[in-house]
Amino acid sequence: MKKIGIVLILIMIICGCTNRLDENQLIYNSYVEELKELKSTNTAKDIVDIDIKLEKSSNDEITYRVTIDNPKEKMKQVEAFVYHDQKTEDIYPSIGIFDEKVNLIPNLKEKDEKNTEGIVLVGYIKTKKEIEDFHPTMKVMILYNNQENERQKIYFTKKM
Known about the structure:
- By secondary structure, this protein is of the alpha+beta class.
- 22% of the residues lie in helices and 39% in strands.
């Protein structure tokens, strides 16, 4: 009887984890589709600074680094997602979808794993092009709760 109870508990745990992963994957896929269709827009400029840098990392790979920092207001439960218009089989970098959401706090004195002043998301694009000949369109979406705990969504788009 004890063995049946243990087996049932294990099945419930496995099913619960699988459902959560499936739910997160659906969210991730919806973000990919949303940013794929998004036209050039920048609603983030008055709320947070976003900087994107490209760097040649090997003969056939370019690294992109997206820095989200200097929040102008407290941003709670942050999800951030980076998309580019280049062909890829890699996942797009994100925070808060498959892992814990963080809080971006202006003038933060003590950082911890949930509270920070900035986020850095890094990804790779396979290409034989040199940096000067490589011009992807990068799109960033940030979802967060504002001071009134209302869910907000902001965008940043840049042609490199």
